[in-house]
Task: structure prediction
Amino acid sequence: MASKITDVPGIRVGQVRKVGDGWLSGVTVVLPPPGTIGSVDVRGGGPGTHETDALDPTTLVPTVDAVVLTGGSAYGLAAAHGAQRWCEEHGRGFPVTGGVVPIVPAAAIFDLGRGGDFAARPGADMGYDAAAAAAASGEEADVERGNAGAGTGAVLGRGAFKGGVGTASVTLEAVAPDGPVVVGAIAVVNALGMPAGAELPAPGSQGLNTTLAVVATNAVLDPAECKRTAGAAHAGLARALNPSHTLADGDTVFALATGAVALDRSSEQARQISLITLQSAAAEAVRLAVLDGIASAETITTPAGEFRAFGA
Result:
């Protein structure tokens, strides 16, 4: 079985999609174990995000209850409300008087109208269903790739080719005394750019794009280290796609640390080496996930046109 983000113990992924009757969109939810530390780094010039300010290392709550990746541009961010409702029903969230407030950041890609109906975009129900699917999946369950979840309506290279969901993981043996550290990533590839070395097609009508990623690890990281890991992981996106982080992209990377395995912090030098090694692995996992999403995408025809798989 190919490597995947769910190789990180405790990480689960749920995906839903709608295709046909004007639809070509979906939602991907990454559900981490309770107590997972999270952060985010946004580098695209056209982001569509929800609750990312809460992930700044200086804010009150360091943990994340779910991450939502969605189609539907800014409209699709409503999917986060559904995932938040699922978390509340299951007691997951920041404790407050009378209940909990789930911390559910989200980011969206632009896929409006790609199925033929501009108004066919994810809402709260799809976010709820994707969160429930994540919870119902087994430990280290496989992750559907290609035209799945938030990658259902994704495209590549100014709309010339089909994009999609990809995932990968990297295992590190030498950075933690108590066991291997696993770094996994899932990416939704909806890029203006193309795989490095491929020629960028002429401008078309699909210029609004975004690549989203979630990188997760079982290592112990504090919020600032998690923030730095999200930033380092953007290097993988840049290595896989040219151009990336453009004015027309909303490129966003979330980072999650479940805190199951302590890194080597026996000295300041050991700490630096372990973090640099982990963050380099985060970049590599994202690079592999992006390429996997491109390779896994399948040609699809809708009333809005044919979206051909790269290399088909």
